Input
Amino acid sequence: MTQVRWGLVSTANINRRLIPAIRQSARGEMVAVASRSQASAEAYAAEWEIPRAFGSYQAMLNSDEIDAVYISLPNHLHAEWTIKALQAGKHVLCEKPFALSLDEVDQMIATAEATGCVLAEAFMYRHHPQTKLVGEWVRNGRLGEITLIRATFNFDISGDPDNVRLVPEYGGGCLWDVGVYPISLAQFLMGRLPDWVAGSQWVGDKEVDEVFSGHLHYANEDGDCAAQISASFRTPWHTFAEVLGTNGRLELNRPFVGLDDSQRRLTFYPRQGEPQEIPVPEKELYLGEVEDMHDAILAGTAPYISLTETHNHVKTVLALYKAAATRQIVTL
Ligand SMILES: NC(=O)c1ccc[n+]([C@@H]2O[C@H](COP(=O)([O-])OP(=O)(O)OC[C@H]3O[C@@H](n4cnc5c(N)ncnc54)[C@H](OP(=O)(O)O)[C@@H]3O)[C@@H](O)[C@H]2O)c1
Output
């Protein structure tokens, strides 16, 4: 096997990013799309020049024409269809948030282990050279002791009241949707779960959080550290992150999304002296997660984002929601 034959589980908007990445990889083949209706699958397949169209997700999973699937369903369906895909012997790249409960995460991981199929969470920015570089700066001590991570992901959903992100039973809410990016950055840079979290939220009339801010506390022998994360559906589009250490500060103007690498800025503000622009190699944002799946499926390497990290992402979100709802600190 030298090529991975991909199928898309749904006609979701985000597929438009994965399809070019799969086609860009020499080891990927864009073979099929499945939708809840045959007409929708065929229309989508024609638009994107995908050879096969299936009128149900299960029909595509039953097909021996595909090896791997991309789960781009609304959040509440990630676990169900990931498990069904794994049981059908398909490798799975599942969108964030991976699942909405730890029971679901555990079942997904157990099914991957039982079937021997590859399972990974789709956090495209984690594979970008900029994120890896920031990780190296933290781990090799160039920033000194890390004292604070601040990260945010905001956008404005107010013109789209029917968006699935506003449906509580679909796993709606800004923390599940975009707050997971700052949380995953903190998990990556700190390498572990926070010891405790606090959170506050604004729940709108759709009964999901539309603004969320959280405090993730990491106890250290040499001095405690925190991550301040925030997410919003109610403010203009804005992403930002900074990592502060005893030797200086790294600032990222586009830490999570952005197809045009020329707009990214990674700036180091040293303890003394002038700010320095840090050059970052360019890379197509969604290609890394696809290549990582190909490595795992074809060469047997472990996925770059471990399932332990993924478990921790969901655990942190749930703890933050509990903290906000109870106005109490929640220990992890
Ligand atoms: N990594 C990223 O950059 C990124 C960006 C955006 C979104 N995401 C994630 O990707 C996932 C999809 O987001 P999206 O905005 O692309 O979704 P979307 O455009 O709303 O599409 C979701 C698809 O799911 C299918 N579906 C099945 N049951 C559904 C239901 N009850 N209601 C609505 N749709 C249903 C539909 O496809 P059919 O009609 O064809 O069955 C629909 O097209 C989410 O988990 C989100 O968090 C990731």
About this structure: The first helix runs from residue 15 to 24. The mean pLDDT is 97.
